[in-house]
Amino acid sequence: MSAPGFDPWWLIAAKALAVFGFLLITVLVAILAERRVLARMQMRLGPNRVGPNGLLQSLVDGIKLALKEDVTPAGANRTVYLLAPVIAVIPAILAFAVIPMGPVVSVFGHRTALQLTDMPVAVLYVLAATSMGAYGIVLAGWASGSSYPLLGGLRSTAQVISYEIAMALSFTTVFLLTGTMSTSGIVAAQDGTWFVFVLLPSFLIYVTSMVGETNRAPFDLPEAEGELVGGFHTEYSSLKFAMFMLAEYVNMTTVSALATTMFLGGWHAPWPINMWDGANTGWWPLLWFTGKVWAFMFGYFWLRATLPRLRYDQFMALGWKLLIPVSLMWVMTIAVVRTVSPDPQAAQGIAAIAGLCLVLGVALTVKRSARARISGVRP
Questions:
Q1: What sign for the dihedral angle of Cα 216, 221, 227, 232?
Q2: CA-CA distance, 92 to 126, in Å (whole number)?
């Protein structure tokens, strides 16, 4: 058996191509699935003309974008304007390199893990890679030579800074509980109990932060069509516009895979499938991993169809006044639990009870605050 990253060169190349293909196919399916799910929730038909039952709609949309006229604004910084979509796409794809998609399997006689590579600080690598994608949005807004894209880029900068702090703090509790930042090590630590039950506040904070990190509704403030036309990509067309859309959906897939890895047991089979002896062996775990990722993708679609866009002050207040203080409080709680109870099993039990109490306490506090605000507005 060879460790991730130390496989033969041809196997590394094959796994890299497989990851890239997985992301592209996921994007094509996600675009079609989102339009069909939104149509279903809004009681309309959705795409149903191109191909059998509209299954080729995403492919045709990509061809249509490629054939559109490619216009560069006269006042744009041409070099940065052309590089911005590339900067947005590449980090989103690179971040997926350390995501474990399955256990060790046999590929043409070689034993290898279904993971391109791993490192002792793999989660920090993912955070760094996804953060780099924000530069593509900021530079696109600045280089377009227009006011609306510039405002969209500035909003994105504030948004990423605000919600990446809460996201990183939600991971800190996982590091404290497992003692590792390796993604494969974190998945192995969830062989018995998933961290969504042990670290419920961290999971809820991460899910909220990942929606803000990917600029999706109801947190799509950098775009905000009603205020900023199209936001940072207003001046982009043809394939450059398509690259921004590709970056958005790849980022959605990456953060969903990271949520699966950190809190839903990674490629481990869910209950009651895990009662089958062969559920976590062979190629079956790849199916469980993909199913969990798509559960988060469906959550994205559901949020877009359900919730209206927040005001910018509401959005920033949620990050700085709620998520970050609660994250800090929760990190301190887990640190105390690990100090008091060195036994991992006992620490997980105490953390689960403390997490449930924290979630209920925050929910009651927010509800009471909302009632007080409403009663203060009424005459």
A1: negative
A2: 9
Token code pair at residue 109: 């006689």
Residues contacting 250, CB < 8 A, separation 6+: 23, 27, 89, 92, 93, 96
C-alpha closest to that of 208 among 251, 248, 259: 259
- Residue 42's Cβ-side half-sphere holds a number of Cα atoms within 13 Å equal to 16
Q: Where are the domains of the chain?
A: 9-377
DSSP codes joined into one string, 123-185: HHHHHHHHHHHHHHHHHHHHHTTSHHHHHHHHHHHHHHHHHHHHHHHHHHHHHHHHS---HHH
CA 11 to chain centre: 27
Q: Is the peptide bond before 325 cis (omega within 30 degrees of 0)?
A: no
Residue 375 banded pLDDT, cuts 50, 70, 90: confident
Specify the pLDDT at position 1: 43
Residues 309 and 277 sit within 8 Å (Cβ to Cβ): no
- Predicted confidence (pLDDT) per residue in 98-109, tens digit: 999 999 898 888
Q: Output b/e per residue, 245-263; b: 16+ Cβ within 10 A.
A: bbbbbbbbbbbbbbbbbbb
How far, in Å, CA of 128 to CA of 176, rounded? 20
